[in-house]
User: What shape does this take?
Amino acid sequence: MSKKVPIVVLTLVCLSISAFGQQELYDKANALFKAGAYTEAIKTYRNSDFVQAMPKERRGEIFYKTAEAYRLIGQTRQAEIYYEKAEEKGFNTPEFYLNYANTLLSNENYEKAKSNFEEYKKLKPNSPIANVGIQSVELAQKLKQAPTSYVIDPLPFINGKTNDFSPAIIPSEPQKLFFSSSRITSTGINIHYATGEEFSDIFVSELDKREKWIAPKPVPGINSDVEEATCTFNQDGSEVYFSRARIAKRKQMGCEIYMAKKEGDRYGNPILIPIAADSVVVTHPSLSADGRTLYFASNLSGGIGGLDIWKVTRDSDKGEWGKPQNLGAEINTIGNEAFPYIHPDGTLYFASNGRPGMGGYDIFLSKQKGNGYVVENMGYPINSSSDDFGITFLPGKETGYFTSRRPGGKGEDDVYMFHLPPIAINISGTIVDSKSKKPLDGSIVKMLGNDGTTVNTQTGADGFFKFMMKPNTDYIVISTRKGYLNGKYKVSTFDIKGSKEYTYNVEMTSYEKPVEVPNIFYDFNKWELKPESTAALDMLIETLNDNPSIIIELGSHTDSRGGLEYNYKLSQNRAQAAVDYLIEKGIPIERLRAKGYASSAPKIVDEQIAKQYPFLTIGTVLNDQNIAILDSDEKKDIAHQLNRRTEFKVISTTYVSKE
Assistant: This one.
């Protein structure tokens, strides 16, 4: 007998589906989708006979809902395919552009993601979500190009092919790792309609003597035939708090937080923490170190977005919990904030998809500042283009665990370990002569930190020095050498996220010869300082403050043009005007002398002047005789200009302040 099916029979089947079954299948798929049974909904939406039987004008909607179901279970590659199909069918609601854009962001298709965020903004110009999305496209690329120093390692002996997430530790037993998992060894009796996997349970693994993870086992006493996940412990592990969710008849019944006390090798009967009605989502608990504040995520009424971060407090670690308090708009957004973790130092970590990020959920940290919070994205590689959430830290270390759905994992959600290598911040450089730029051996180099640390060294023939610095500290590097003004350099290690090498040449100026103070200006034939002269004199004040034992003579020089007696008076008054300014700014009068030289000490051409003006020879004294032989008026004017100057010279190094 032939196994070939007659074409007329196939036609009748298609007609049957078209006429009698399409609405029923459509209603079934939508009901599954609405109930959060996304994997089941996908099976119906992807039924090829069903799709073909639907009117062409409705196929775009079917593809869109298929894409949405894939997006909501974190399968963004599949979601992108079906968004494209929906787009080809002309489906173009505002929500389509927004969700398609977020999927493209997660898939690192940045240009196309930005385009779709912009399309959404055209349709919803007053929505802040569009701006967050556009900012995310730019931020994601920026963060990936400037990674933090965190090192990320997968945990292959912990992770399986199913979802493994929400790591937690007991502070007093950091060698144990607790996490949630939907692996087949869980005790749940049903399949989770959203993920298509077993109901999750809380498991524990432990490092053995060889620092190897042993096979994970369910935590005895708290797992049941419904879903348990995301636990937190008090300091000694005598109490555990965890989420429990129930699903009945494909309807989400909300989540609740339970507490159980340890009884020997297991936990006793869980006790409900009465925070809200059982139809409300109350999940992802995190207990503060003192046991008096419980943070959690919830869609309680009065919130800002979908899920918000809330807290309840009590007067003692055994007292009754108070009323829920929303952490406010500085933490929560119109998106979702979830998986809070309160660090013993008071820093709150949480996951959010309502802030600019790399895609999906990103992990943020927030620190209290005054009465508010300062929130910061943890950056790449902690965050990725996929969902990243559920972070926890080992006691006293910048090391811990978190969850990520990033590509390359063993399953869907996987647990990763992170650590921050020791930060090495160094400063090195060479002490050089400010004019010759040659190294100065025998210089004493001292580094002072605002934390009270002081270290010093002496340079060799190469003038080289090097110091190690601490994070979050301000430093001053000071160099001293006989016959030289002190050198100084300021450096700060605040906001340094990783290892860094500072390199800086510290210039020291010899005072064996007069030192010119550039950019001191006077009006023609006047001695009042012009306003633009103050910047140079302020630098001289800094030099005097850096060299508190020196006494200086401030000398003013004119060129040879004009009467000699007049030039002496003019230069003396100009020198005194500069000294008066320094005294007004707080320099003791005992440290200052004013002297007018008129044209009695013409400038001598040095290497620096000869390099700037090649027509002048090193060692030439710019007196009237040598200026007269220059071959142009322009060159003569330059020579006269070089003679018009203000200089200081150190006449003593024995000043002692009377204060």
In short: The chain is about 25% helix and 30% strand. The first strand starts at residue 151 and ends at 154. The mean pLDDT is 90.
